User: Which sequence fits this backbone?
C-alpha cells in the first residue's frame, strides 16, 4: 500500500489547489451524517414490534436490556450514540493527530473511511441481531474514531494550500460536516421506506447501503488528496511579516508535544468549548423550545395560547413548524461555517471570535424579552445568527491555531483542541435539559423555562469573551528550533519546492484540467445543493 504514503501525494507544479477542497468535502459530507442519526431512532424503537414498540420488562436490569433480543430499545438508549460520537471524535483526533501529520491526509482519509463505514456495517449486524451494544461499538466507538480522523484529515493540508485564505479553505471543508445530515437524513428516510417490509423496519439494510455509498465517496476523497511541496506558495502572494502586518500570525512552528503547556492553547480551548457549549445546548432543544415558548402563536392563535392547551391536531402542526425551524437553523449552521471563516481572513481570527462571543452575549440575553413580547420573527432571527456563529466557530478555529502555532503541525494541534468539542457535547445538552426539567418540576410555565437558561448561556459566552481577550502571541521559547523543524519535516516526508529532502516519490508534472476541477466540484456540490433545497422546503413552513 505504498501509494498511500505521504511522499506519494506531493503535488507537482501543475496541480490545482482547487481540487483539494472537494476531496475534503467528499469526506466531511459523509461523516457529517453523525448529526442526522436521529432519523433512525423512531424506526429502531419499533424494530421488534414494527407497528409499535414492545417494551422490555420493568424488572429487567440495564445489562439484560442491552443483551435482550425480544423487546425494543428506548430512544434514550439509542441517543447515547451522540455522546459516543463526539467523545471518540475528540479523543481520536487528539490521539492520532501527530500520526496524521507524518502519515499524510490520504492514509488518514482511508483509515477514516474504513472506520466510519466499517462501523456502520457492524451496526447493521447489531440491528439485525438486535444487540444495541454492537451499535454502540460499531458506529459509536469505531465510527467515532473514523469521525475524528476524517474531520481533521484535511485541515493541515488545506491551510498549507491556502496560506492566503486559511479561513475560507477550512470553512469550505468544515461546512461539509454541518451539511452531511441534510443529505444523509433524507437519503436514509428514503432507503428505510424502500426496504421496509411487514417484518422489518428497513434500518439494517439502510445502514449497509449507506456504508457502501459513503465508502465510495470517502475513498474517492482520500485518494484525491495532494499535499504541497514545502515552501510552495500561491503565485503573486507574499507571506505577512511578523510584528509588522499582524503580530498574531507567526511564521514559526510549535511542536504538538508542547501545546499542553502553553497558556494560549488552553485559552483557545476554553473559547471553543464555551462557544460550542452554548450553541450545541440550544441546537439540541430547538424543536421543543420554539413550540413551548410560542405555543398557539405558531398557528396564528392569540398570543398567550399555551402549548399545553393545544389539541392533538394542533400539536402535530406545531411539530411540523418546529421541524422547519430546525431545518432553518441547519442552513445557518452550514452557511455560517463558510461565511464567518471567510470573513476571518479579512478581520482576523481574534476579532472574529470577539464578534461570536460579544454578539452572542447580547443575543442570548435579549431572547427572553423577544419571547415575552411574542416577537416570533426576531426570536427566529436571533437564533439563526447564534447558530451561524456556532458553526463559524468550528470553521475558524483551525486558522486561528495556524496563526498562533504555525502550520507545520496544525492538524495535530487541532486534533487536541477538539477535546473541547467532546466536553461541550456533554456540558451543553445536559445544562439545557436539566435546567428545563428542574424548572418544570418546580412549577415554572413551559413558556418561561428557557429564560434562566438563556441568561446562563449569556454568562458562558461572557467568560469566553474574556478568555479570547487574554490570547496573545506565543512566546519564542515554545517554537521549534531550525534543527527541530528540519527533523519534523523529515519525519513528515516533506519535500521542498525543488524536490529535495523527504523520501523519494513520484511527482506528477501534469497540469490539472479545468474540466477535472468542475467535475470534482459537481460530485460534492450537486448532493449538497439537493440537501439544501430539501431543507429549505421544510424551513418554508415557518413563513406560511
Assistant:
Amino acid at each position: 500500500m505504498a501509494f498511500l504514503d505521504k511522499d506519494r501525494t506531493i503535488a507537482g507544479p501543475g496541480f490545482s489547489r482547487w481540487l483539494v477542497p472537494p476531496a475534503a468535502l467528499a469526506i466531511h459530507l459523509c461523516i457529517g451524517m453523525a448529526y442526522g442519526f436521529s432519523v433512525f431512532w423512531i424506526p429502531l424503537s419499533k424494530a421488534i414490534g414494527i407497528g409499535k414498540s414492545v417494551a422490555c420488562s420493568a424488572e429487567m436490569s440495564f445489562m439484560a436490556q442491552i443483551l435482550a433480543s425480544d423487546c425494543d430499545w428506548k430512544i434514550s438508549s439509542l441517543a447515547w450514540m451522540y455522546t459516543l460520537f463526539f467523545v471518540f471524535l475528540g479523543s481520536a483526533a487528539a490521539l492520532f493527530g501527530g500520526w496524521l501529520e507524518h502519515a499524510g491526509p490520504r492514509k488518514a482519509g482511508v483509515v477514516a473511511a474504513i472506520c466510519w463505514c466499517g462501523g456502520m456495517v457492524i451496526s447493521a449486524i447489531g440491528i439485525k441481531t438486535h444487540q444495541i451494544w454492537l451499535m454502540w461499538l460499531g458506529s459509536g466507538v469505531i465510527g467515532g474514531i473514523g469521525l475524528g480522523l476524517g474531520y481533521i484529515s484535511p485541515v493541515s493540508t488545506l491551510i498549507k494550500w491556502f496560506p492566503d485564505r486559511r479561513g475560507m479553505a477550512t470553512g469550505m471543508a468544515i461546512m461539509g460536516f454541518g451539511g452531511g445530515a441534510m443529505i444523509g437524513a433524507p437519503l436514509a428516510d428514503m432507503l428505510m421506506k424502500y426496504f421496509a417490509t411487514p417484518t422489518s423496519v428497513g434500518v439494517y439494510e439502510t445502514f449497509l447501503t449507506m456504508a457502501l455509498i459513503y465508502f465510495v465517496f470517502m475513498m474517492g476523497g482520500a485518494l484525491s488528496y495532494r499535499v504541497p511541496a514545502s515552501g510552495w506558495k500561491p503565485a503573486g502572494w507574499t507571506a505577512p511579516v511578523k510584528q509588522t502586518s499582524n503580530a498574531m500570525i507567526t511564521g514559526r512552528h510549535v511542536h504538538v508535544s508542547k501545546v499542553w503547556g502553553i497558556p494560549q492553547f488552553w485559552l483557545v480551548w476554553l473559547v471553543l468549548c464555551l462557544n460550542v457549549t452554548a450553541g450545541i445546548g440550544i441546537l439540541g432543544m430547538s424543536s421543543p423550545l420554539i413550540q413551548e415558548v410560542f405555543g398557539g402563536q405558531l398557528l396564528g392563535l392569540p398570543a398567550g395560547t399555551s402549548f399545553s392547551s393545544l389539541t392533538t391536531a394542533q400539536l402535530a402542526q406545531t411539530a411540523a413548524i418546529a421541524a422547519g425551524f430546525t431545518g432553518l437553523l441547519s442552513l445557518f449552521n452550514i452557511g455560517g461555517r463558510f461565511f464567518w471563516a471567510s470573513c476571518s481572513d479579512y478581520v482576523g481570527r481574534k476579532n472574529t471570535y470577539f464578534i461570536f462571543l460579544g454578539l452572542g452575549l447580547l443575543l442570548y440575553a435579549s431572547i427572553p424579552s423577544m419571547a415575552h413580547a411574542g416577537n416570533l420573527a426576531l426570536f427566529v432571527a436571533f437564533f439563526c445568527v447564534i447558530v451561524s456563529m456556532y458553526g463559524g466557530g468550528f470553521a475558524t478555529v483551525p486558522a486561528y491555531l495556524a496563526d498562533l502555532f504555525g502550520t507545520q503541525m496544525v492538524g495535530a494541534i487541532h486534533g487536541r483542541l477538539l477535546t473541547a468539542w467532546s466536553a461541550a457535547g456533554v456540558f451543553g445538552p445536559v445544562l439545557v435539559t436539566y435546567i428545563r426539567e428542574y424548572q418544570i418540576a418546580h412549577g415554572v410555565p413551559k413558556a418561561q423555562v428557557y429564560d434562566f437558561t438563556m441568561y446562563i448561556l449569556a454568562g458562558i459566552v461572557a467568560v469566553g469573551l474574556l478568555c479570547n481577550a487574554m490570547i496573545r502571541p506565543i512566546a519564542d521559547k515554545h517554537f521549534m528550533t531550525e534543527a527541530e523543524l528540519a527533523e519534523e519535516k523529515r519525519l513528515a516526508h516533506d519535500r521542498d519546492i525543488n524536490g529535495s529532502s523527504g523520501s523519494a516519490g513520484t511527482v506528477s508534472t501534469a497540469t490539472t484540467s479545468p474540466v477535472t476541477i468542475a467535475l470534482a466540484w459537481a460530485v460534492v456540490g450537486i448532493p449538497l445543493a439537493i440537501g439544501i433545497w430539501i431543507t429549505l422546503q421544510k424551513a418554508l413552513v415557518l413563513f406560511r
User: Anything to note?
Assistant: The chain is about 65% helix and 0% strand.
